[in-house]
From TrEMBL:
Bias kind Low complexity: ranges: 91-111
Keywords in alphabetical order: Membrane, Transmembrane, Transmembrane helix
Record carries keyword Lipid biosynthesis: no
InterPro entries in UniProt: TrbK
Pfam short name (any one): TrbK
Keyword Nucleotide-binding listed: no
Coiled coil: none
Name of this chain's protein: Conjugal transfer protein TrbK
Entry superkingdom: Bacteria
Region (Disordered): 27-48, 80-111
TM region(s), chain numbering: 6-24
Length: 111
């Protein structure tokens, strides 16, 4: 068989497969995800840090200049990097505003 003919057959087969895949994809019914409420509604218990982080996220570019956001991000990093501490103690408000956060999650033997 001539190489030109073989190349043409290969090109035609490739185009046919591409067209078939496109038609199949376009004929699919679009699956819409279930309407989920905002992320805050999914939170089980009220966490002031999470609320503050959402507020800081909504600030956009002003977030890095907001002192409350800086404290919230520092506490979030501390929680993430310190094993075993995920929730603040009851009644402590937004953690990270005083030295209490260091004494709670500190490892035995000091820093």
């Amino acid at each position: 068989m001539d190489p030109k003919t073989l190349a043409r057959i290969g090109a035609i087969a490739f185009v046919a497969v591409a067209i078939t895949a496109t038609v199949i994809e376009l004929s699919r019914k679009e699956e819409r995800p279930e309407a989920t409420p905002p992320r805050q509604a999914q939170v089980g218990a009220a966490d002031p840090l999470r609320d503050e982080l959402f507020r800081c996220q909504s600030l956009g570019e002003a977030g890095p200049r907001d002192p409350a956001c800086l404290r919230a991000w520092a506490e979030s990093r501390r929680r993430f990097l310190t094993p075993g501490t995920t929730r603040p103690q009851a009644g402590s408000g937004l953690p990270g505003s005083s030295g209490e956060s260091r004494s709670r999650g500190a490892a035995p033997g000091g820093e």
